[in-house]
């Protein structure tokens, strides 16, 4: 620890100890009782909520329960919202009509081709020429487009990328590049940039389509609307048989080469005059989801904010089984609800926080951090005035892989060495005075393969420069994302102890003289 940080920690701890005789923080932390945690969690992780999957009735019931709790406490609703909920749109797309005809043939959906609803938009493409563009790669180490002109043409592309002597030609090593895996989107974007009308994609490993694949392609799951990266054109995946009808006998050799990840020669990359028409039409349904926000307004620093967050969604029902999500993240949800109770009582009794404390329960976390992404892109309160986000995702269980003698007295803390050097100073001093938990920084190791820092809602605050601490029990094995993550598995005494420690941390951050400094780089990596 730097000397400045050591002195700051010592002074903070001294200040905390000086008020030990009549400590309001302790009095209000004691309102976070195991009885109340049990009462709320039995409902949030109960059968009626049906696993709280985002965009379902179960999620809406959970939002209503949280909203009613905030209302019963008399929390302030954000002025810019109609009540406690920040609504955000999600979508599902369904194909209404799609057709593909080329030369003399009208292609049959599900046999000759599929056009996945998730990746296509309403539109028509016509061309008199089709171009085979190999793997569709445009890179300094390998370029399929160097002698091809694809403007106003339809491009045929193979999935995958070429290797030679066991090494990928783009990366130069044994690992594939960004042109593989999710590289299909990159290939489509490059073709679009070069003026292609549409893309026909061939998967060398998928000769034909099953009925299940064809049917599932016609409708998307619920998704969060993000703007596409780069340009976009419609595409179809075509079967091997249809590709051979389209291109003739040479296609058999081209597919065989792609199966072996062989590079294509200039002679193999060419155009043919074939009149082709590809049209696509879909309907888009909007499904609303919500984040639930309640506020205890501050006193002399009410225009600065401490956020306490958790996600109230989970995985819903699958094959008739409810995924209850008691720990993930029912535990964080009810902890935030009880902290709201404690802070509101303090305010009502004239001991309220100096800064405003915002209690935000978000949805969409299990789908990809959707709710917190929407909030961070559409903040209700200025992010530059948000001193910290204390995020809680799973604090009711134990890490079955931990194998240490402090199994019933620890919590993982993530983010302590990022954005602000004051994060661990405050948290460690508070924990030393009030809780005595082992604060384990295991998941802040940059080499940790779990990438936990990027996997929960605090990350969407961090990417905007807000200091964050994430509190977590590490339950990655055992009942993680299983129907057996149920209320009866919670360690109530440990759960309460963790929740109270987080409350004390929030109390200190809400009442200290200054906002947390932002003196460390904002992490730019991703999951």
Describe the structure.
The chain is α/β, with parallel strands linked by helices and 527 residues long. Helix content is 30%, strand content 24%. It has 14 helices and 20 strands. Helix 4 runs parallel beside helix 9. It is elongated, with a radius of gyration of 27 Å.
Mean pLDDT: 94
Number of strands: 20
Unreliable runs, pLDDT <50, ≥5 residues?
A: 17-22
The oligomeric state of the chains shown is single chain
Structural class: alpha/beta
Number of alpha- plus pi-helical segments = 14
N/C terminus separation: 28 Å
Features:
single chain; 527 residues; 14-stranded mixed sheet; two-stranded antiparallel sheet; 14 helices
Fold blueprint:
Elements (H helix, E strand, L loop, with lengths): L2 H16 L5 H6 L4 H11 L12 H17 L11 E18 L2 E2 L6 E2 L8 E10 L5 E2 L2 E2 L10 E5 L4 E2 L2 E2 L14 H11 L4 E5 L8 H6 L18 E4 L1 H8 L2 H10 L11 E26 L4 E11 L4 E3 L2 E3 L2 H23 L6 E8 L2 H4 L1 H8 L8 E7 L17 E5 L7 H13 L3 E3 L17 H5 L5 E5 L19 H20 L16
Parallel strand pairs: 4-7, 7-10, 10-11, 13-16, 13-17, 17-20, 18-19
Antiparallel strand pairs: 1-2, 1-12, 3-11, 4-12, 5-6, 8-9, 12-16, 14-15, 18-20
Helix pairs in contact: 1-12, 3-9, 4-9, 7-8, 9-14, 12-14
Can you summarize this structure?
The chain is an alpha/beta fold and 527 residues long.
């Amino acid at each position: 620890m730097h000397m400045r940080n050591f002195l700051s920690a010592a002074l903070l701890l001294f200040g905390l100890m000086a008020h030990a005789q009549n400590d309001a923080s302790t009095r209000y932390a004691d309102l976070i009782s195991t009885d109340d945690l049990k009462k709320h969690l039995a409902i949030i992780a109960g059968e009626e909520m049906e696993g709280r999957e985002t965009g379902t009735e179960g999620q809406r019931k959970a939002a209503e329960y949280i909203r009613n709790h905030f209302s019963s406490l008399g929390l302030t609703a954000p002025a810019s919202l109609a009540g406690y909920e920040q609504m955000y749109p999600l979508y599902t797309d369904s194909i209404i009509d799609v057709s593909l005809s080329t030369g003399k043939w009208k292609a049959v959906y599900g046999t000759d081709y599929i056009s996945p609803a998730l990746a296509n938009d309403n539109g028509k493409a016509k061309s008199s020429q089709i171009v085979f563009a190999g793997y569709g790669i445009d890179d300094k180490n390998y370029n399929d487009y160097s002698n091809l002109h694809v403007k106003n043409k339809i491009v045929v592309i193979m999935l995958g990328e070429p290797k030679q002597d066991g090494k990928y030609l783009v990366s130069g090593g044994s690992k594939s590049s960004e042109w593989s895996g999710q590289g299909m989107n990159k290939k489509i974007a490059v073709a679009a940039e070069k003026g292609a009308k549409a893309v026909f994609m061939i998967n060398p490993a998928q000769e034909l389509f099953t009925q299940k694949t064809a049917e599932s392609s016609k409708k998307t799951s619920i998704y969060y609307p993000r703007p596409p990266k780069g340009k976009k054109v419609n595409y179809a995946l075509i079967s091997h048989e249809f590709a051979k009808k389209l291109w003739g006998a040479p296609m058999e050799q081209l597919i065989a080469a792609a199966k072996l990840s062989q590079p294509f020669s200039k002679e193999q990359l060419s155009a043919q005059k074939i009149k082709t028409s590809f049209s696509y039409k879909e309907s888009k349904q909007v499904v609303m989801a919500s984040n639930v926000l309640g506020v205890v307004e501050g006193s002399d620093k009410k225009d600065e904010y401490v956020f306490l967050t958790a996600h109230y969604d989970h995985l819903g029902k699958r094959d008739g089984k409810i995924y209850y999500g008691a720990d993930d993240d029912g535990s964080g949800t009810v902890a935030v609800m009880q902290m709201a109770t404690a802070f509101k009582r303090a305010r009502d009794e004239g001991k309220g926080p100096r800064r405003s404390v915002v209690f935000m329960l978000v949805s969409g976390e299990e789908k990809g951090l959707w709710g917190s992404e929407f909030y961070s892109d559409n903040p209700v309160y200025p992010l530059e005035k948000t001193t910290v986000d204390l995020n809680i995702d799973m604090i009711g269980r134990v890490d079955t892989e931990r194998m240490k003698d402090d199994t019933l007295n620890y919590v993982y803390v993530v983010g302590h060495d990022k954005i602000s050097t004051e994060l661990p100073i405050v948290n460690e001093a508070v924990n030393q005075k009030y809780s005595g938990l082992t604060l384990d920084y295991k998941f802040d190791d940059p080499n940790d393969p779990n990438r936990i820092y990027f996997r929960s809602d605090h990350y969407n605050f961090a990417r905007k420069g807000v200091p964050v601490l994430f509190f977590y029990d590490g339950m990655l094995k055992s009942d993680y994302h299983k129907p057996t993550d149920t209320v009866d598995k919670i360690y109530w005494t440990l759960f309460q102890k963790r929740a109270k420690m987080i409350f004390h941390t929030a109390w200190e951050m809400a009442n200290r003289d200054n906002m947390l400094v932002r003196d460390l780089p904002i992490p730019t990596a991703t999951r």
